[in-house]
Structure formats: C-alpha cells, structure tokens
Amino acid sequence: MTWQLSNTALDEQQLLVNESLMFLGNGYLGVRGNFEEGYRDDFKSIHGTYINAFHEETEIQYGEKLFGFPDFQQKLANVIDTQEIEVYLDGERFSLFEGEIINFDRTLHMDQGYSVREVHWRSPKSQEAKLTFTRVVSFVTKELFAIKVDVEPISNVREVKLISKVKGDVTNYVEKDDPRLASNHAKLLYANEAKSEAGLTQVKARTERTDLEVACVMRHEHDGQHSIEHNGYEIIETFTFDGASNASLIKYNVYTDTLRHGDDLLEKGIQIQSKLVEFETILKEQKAYLDEFWRVSDIAIAGDDSLQQGIRFNLYHLLQSVGKDSVSNISAKGLSGEGYEGHYFWDTEIYIFPVFLMTNPEIAKGLLLHRYSTLDAARLRAKEMGHKKGALFPWRTITGPESSAFFPAGTAQYHISADIAYSFIQYYLVTKDEQFKQEYLAEVLIETARLWADTGFMKNGQFLINNVTGPDEYTCIVNNNYYTNAMAKYNMEWAYKIYQDMRESELVQQLGVTEDEALFWNEAAEKMLLPFDDELGINEQDDTFLNKQVWDFENTSDEEYPLLLNYHPLTLYRYQVCKQADTVLAHFLVEDLADDETIRKSYDYYEHVTTHDSSLSYCVFSIMASKLGYDEKAYHYFNETARLDIDNLHKNTKDGLHMANMGGTWLAMVYGFAGLRVKEEGLSFRPRQVKAWDDFSFSLRFRDRLINIQLVDGQVVYTLVEGDDLDVSHFNEQVQLSVGSPVSKVL
Q1: For all residues of the chain together, what is the average pLDDT?
Q2: Which 3 state secondary structure label does DSSP give 505?
Q3: How far apart are CA 8 and CA 103, in angstroms?
Q4: pLDDT band at 173 (very low <50, low <70, confident <90, very high)
Q5: Is this structure's pTM higher than 0.70?
Q6: In 3D, which of 364, 344, 168 has the Cα closest to residue 253?
Q7: What value does the mean pLDDT take over residues 395-409?
Q8: Is 153 in contact with 160 (CB distance < 8 Å)?
Q9: Where are the domains of the chain?
Q10: CATH 2.60.120.10, domain 14-58+72-270, yes or no
Q11: Is the bond into 124 cis (omega within 30 degrees of 0)?
Q12: CB-based contacts of 349: which residues, under 8 Å, 6+ apart?
C-alpha cells in the first residue's frame, strides 16, 4: 500500500482531483491522468500535457497601468495531445459512464514509475471485456510518453476496435473566479503541420509571441488491421482486431521542443523513436532509475501506513516535476496541472530545493543554475524598479521577466532575492564546491546585496527597508518586515564575506565592487533593524502589524476560508491576520538572529493569527514546534502536510499538486523531527522522538558522504554509509562517524 496510490471507485466528484494525483512526469514532460477513452460530453476534464518551461506570453490588460508594471505574462502551454484511445466492442464504445462497471482499479506505482488502470466492463448491450491501460513517462528517455492498451474479450465479442488520436490543436484550462488560475487566454498553441510517413505520425505546433515550437513523433506497435485518416491537425488511426483473442496496442509518443532540441524537431523525434526499446524494457529502466532514487531519498516510518504513503507520494511527485536541464525549474504545481500558470516562485528555493540539496545535489545545482541564467533579467528588473544597482528576481516567472500583475503581493515581495541568495549559500555549505562559489555564488551574492543597499537606508544608526511585502500575503507594502530584513541581513553578511575572500579575483574586478561598497554591506547588515516588541517579547512582523486589530476568527465561518477568495485585499491588510508563516519562517531559516525565548513567544503569538490559507505554512509551524518541544503541535501540523493533496485538504488539487507543501513534508521530518541544521561548521542535529512511530529513518548526502539517520526506541543512530570520516553535532556534542561504525545516542 505504501508504494502505491490506488482508487477502486468511479467517483465523479473526484475525477479532476485524480487527474492530478495520477499524473506522470519526469521533469521535462508531464501528462495529467486523463482517461484515454474520454468522459461524458457534459464533463469538463482538465486535459493536459506539458513541457517544463514551454510557454507563451500574453499581454496583461490593466484598467490603469503605471510605470514598471509588467507588460506580458508568461503561461505554461498545454501541448499536443496524444492521450486519446477509444475502445469499441462490436461497435459499442467503451465508457465508464455507460453500461456496468464490474471492477475498477487504478494504481500509481511509485516504486516502479508507471500507472495502470484495470476495468472489467459490461456494455449496455451486454458485451463484456477486461481492459488494462498502462502508461509511463520515461525517466531515462525524457521525451517519451507511452501507453499500452490490452483488451481481453469475455463475451462473444466478434471485433475489437481501437481508435488512437493525436491532436495538434489544444487549449489551456481557464477558470474566471479563482485568482490562482488563468482567467483568459485559453488558446496558446497553434498547430502548423501534421503528416504520416514511414509508420510515424508527426505533428508540430507553435506559439505566436514566444515563437516556440513543439513536435510529437508517434508510432504504434500492434498486430491488428490498420487505417489512418487526417482531419486538419488531428490524425486518427484505427486498429481492428479479431474478438476471438486479446487485443494489444502500444502507443509511443516522443516530444521535442525548441528550448532543448533546436531546429528540425521532427527529425530529432524520429531519431529518438529509432532508438526506443520495447515497452517492457522501458518499465525495467524505470524501476532501475527509481531503485537508485529511493535508495537515498526514501523516508521510512513504521507505525502509520497512511502517512508513509503520503510521504512517498510527495517525494515521487517532486521527482516527476523538478526540472533537470538548464532551461527549467520547478513550478508551484509542477507538471501536474495549470494552477499558477506554470510559474516558478520562491517555493523552489525555500521549500523544494533543500530536498534535492540533501539527497541529490546535482538536481539542486541545476535549479540554482537555472536561477543564475535569469540574473540579467533580474538586473533589468531592478533598474525598472528604480534601483541604480543590483538584481531583483521576479515573484512569478518562467524565463526571468516578472509575470505578476498584482504588485502588492507580487513584485513587492523583494525577499525572493534574499531567498535565492540563501539557497546559493546553502548549496555551498553542503557541497563546498569552490568552483561554484567563484563562478556563480559570488556574483549572485554581490548583485543581491547591491539591491538591499539601494532599497534600504540608514536612519538614527539603523538600516531600514520600507515598502515591501513579506511571505504573508495578507499583510502588504509594509516597513521593516522582519523576514525580509533578517534575510537581507544574512544576504549582505555573506556578500561581504565573499568579497573579503575574492576581492582580488577577476569577477570582483569586473563587477566593479569597491571597498567602500562592501563595507557598507557589512555596516547595513550589522545595523539592520529587526523589529522587536518589548512588552510582548516577540519580533514584530513589521513596524505596524501589532497596531492593527486582530481578525475576528471566532465569527469567521469555515465557508469564508481561504480569506483571499472572500475578502478584498485592503480588508485583510487592515487586520492582524496571516495567510502563512512569516516571522516564524525567518526564525527557522536564520534562527541565530533571535534567542530561544523570543522564538517561543513569537511562535505562540503568530500561531493564533495565522489561517494557513497557504499550503506553505503548515510545515514551518511543524518545524518550529519541534524545535520548541511542542511535540503534539509538531505532529499535528506535519499531518496537515503529508496527505494534503491525496485527501484534497485545500479543495483545489484538481488544478495541480502543491509542490512546496510536498517539499515541506520532507522539511518537517528532517529539519523538524530530526532537528537538522546546516551550519558553516557542518551538520547539526537536535532530534526528537515521534511517539506515533516505532521507527523513522532517512538518508542525507553531505560533502560526498552518504549518511543514514534512524530514530528508534528512544535513540538516534547515525551511520556513515559512504565516504570519508565526518564529524556531526548532536545537541552540541561532536560525534565522529566512520563507515561501518554506527553511533547511537539517547534522545
């Protein structure tokens, strides 16, 4: 059960959710879990196939447009559809909405990398068959999406007919009443070529403004009678089989695009098709790939199969969505749906990046290199926003330009530049990659430090940063947001440190960094205002947060959440109400800036005014509850993360999975229950026993070592699996680890 996600009932209310839950991807290509045979005519499926970073730009329409507002918005485009395969038994079309379903079982195999749907169906005219749909998106051949359909006739079926389609003309999903979705511009892609040659079906399509092209080269493997017809940019292939025996059809779909494959996309697709192995071998390759992934990335618990399933589900879908090339990242919904239009947010650096940093640092490095590739766009955005120097990374983007039209909760979230700098620093601390420091880290830190130096100013011996928005989107355009100031302080401290180390380097000379400039970063960091309320003993979220009236939570009904869908932003801004962790998040990321008592009092205060309307919030409260010894709260908030999508807790899983929350599940376990922190001096642990679990174990990669950590029977066991000896800190006690010599410590 814990390696599979299954459903055995055809619940129409759950169909759209299951399309997201059952999606398959590999970081390049993502395919929603749509039914091959289709749905009822009156059912609106979110039919989707996506290529990471393949997008169109649409003009943003403003009632009133002011200087610096972005002109265009980038949107992930739904691409060529190859999912459809109709099934007919003696002329009767198979449909789960007609006839009798004798058995239905749909399973996602997370340890093997494929999904299978098995249906035993009796038609309205009593024709009967067992149908099996197996699909896979390959981790080994990133361009490949394959479907295998097996039909086993049960009654006296004379003929089985399978009709396979490829559609070049597709549209995106829109929903006008939810700001988290696109409300217009359904048509982003235009087919321009469709042909069949030498047993290969070939379709191309292009976006208009971005001028990106996608192609699909498809072939079938079968032993039936075959015919083909063209209907514009839709190609329909019919396969007829004798009903006296089983029918089988395999559909190999190869996608190429101009971002990765350059020109001659059809020829590139043909070349990839020519090298494909048979379907069963593809499944074996998937298993081998995932065996290695799970060897390092699995988190195993004993005592709760439901949570174990949720944990593996989240890790598996992160792997399926994370970009693994230089032109892509990981969007808020991954490749599972169109929520947030395929944009990359700060979610990547703070919630998702750490998972791969500590388990698969090469993937983590790729995410950083993609951000680095957008540095020039961030420099340009800083100038558009009135800064003389520096880099302002966008709130929402795919290739670098800002795509957020609502600046109070978008562009004003300057903290993303510090978040990105923070992740670059974390990568260096974990890998000690000196070449990375010199080629990427230094430049990012210098340019982001310049942003902060130009954004803030000195007054009465303190450095202030005004008119920004922190992570809490229910409190916008404020002065001295604690999170922003704390992260900016850390950013500038490290920029000064890197300058001191590399002051004679060619890079520092090219960037024109002066001694006075670097000294100012250090001074600004030292004198950064970190708001603190003496009476409450807490870090204030910003200068005015505590002067506002507390939201009337007692008289707010469940139907009014999330508040952003039911209240005007200005109404929310006037109250003490947090959408998500803000100051509490800063206390996690840069915990050394506050003492434990301040952290405790702040946690207690903000917990009562936080709605957790954002899925990014629960894990942070869980992590900090663990730090503070609030074990029941830590476990409660963790529970909210582990199965958020499987159980559709936020009621919008249909639009795609919550990738940051999935990363947050891992964070809550590793940084929360195990108490991991990455310090300049190395790894530090402050683990806590989870009473609900008999056993809890996971592995980490750190500086070319592989370490396993197990919490069991009131002890923590540290085991160095691979690599040279390593010292780690256990509750401030140095512990030396050597291969073959596990070390046990009492919790």
Answers
A1: 96
A2: coil
A3: 8
A4: confident
A5: yes
A6: 168
A7: 96
A8: yes
A9: 14-58+72-270
A10: no
A11: no
A12: 367, 371, 416, 419, 420, 422, 423
Residues facing residue 345 across a β-bridge: none
Here the tokens at position 484 are 């922003």
Rounded to 5 degrees, what are φ and ψ at 29?
Answer: -120, 140
* Distance (Å, whole) CA 611 – CA 569: 15
Catalytic residues: 473
Both tokens assigned to 9:
């009932």
Could you tell me what percent of the chain has a pLDDT over 90? 95
Higher-pLDDT residue of 533, 185: 533
User: Cα–Cα distance between 485 and 498 in angstroms, integer?
Assistant: 20
Q: Is-contact 32 327, C-beta < 8 A? A: no
* Structural tokens at position 392: 């302002």
Amino acid at position 350, single letter: I
Q: Express each pLDDT in 350-364 by its tens digit.
A: 999 999 999 999 999
344 token code pair: 């990359």
How far apart CA 724 and CA 294 sit, in angstroms, is: 23
Average pLDDT over residues 250-279: 97
29-87 residue pLDDT tens? 999 999 999 999 888 899 999 999 999 999 999 999 999 999 999 999 999 999 999 99
Return all residues near 44 (Cβ < 8 A) that are at least 6 apart.
Answer: none
Place of tokens 């809490």: 472
Helix (H, G, I), strand (E, B) or coil at 548: coil
**DSSP conformation class of 351:** I
CA diameter of the chain: 90
pLDDT (average), residues 276-303: 97
Q: Which of 713, 44, 68 is nearest to 383 (CA)?
A: 68
Q: Give yes or no for a contact between 204 and 168, defined as CB atoms under 8 angstroms apart.
A: yes
Torsional class of 601: left (φ above 0), alpha (ψ -120 to 50), beta (otherwise): alpha
C-alpha 431 chain-centroid distance: 23
The tokens for 123 are 């038609």
Give the C-alpha separation, 731 to 721, whole Å. 22
Cα–chain-centroid distance for residue 171?
23
With 0-12 / 13-18 / 19 or more C-beta atoms within 10 angstroms meaning exposed / middle / buried, residue 408 is: middle
Q: How many CA atoms lie within 13 A of 409 on its CB side?
A: 16
Q: What angle do CA 355, 393, 71 make, to 5 degrees?
A: 125
User: 3-state DSSP: the chain helix, strand, coil percent, rounded to 5?
Assistant: 35, 25, 40
Tokens of residue 153, six digits: 């006739």
Tokens of 428: 């260096």
Mean per-residue pLDDT, 476-499 = 98
pLDDT higher than 70, residue 182:
no
Element (H, E) at 660: helix 659-667
Instruction: Sort 66 into a burial class: Cβ within 10 Å, 0-12 / 13-18 / 19+.
Output: exposed
CA–CA dist 495, 444 (Å, integer): 9
Helices and strands of the chain, counted as H and E runs:
21, 31
Measure the CA–CA gap between 719 and 741, rounded to whole angstroms.
Answer: 7
Cβ atoms of 524 and 593 within 8 Å: the answer is: no
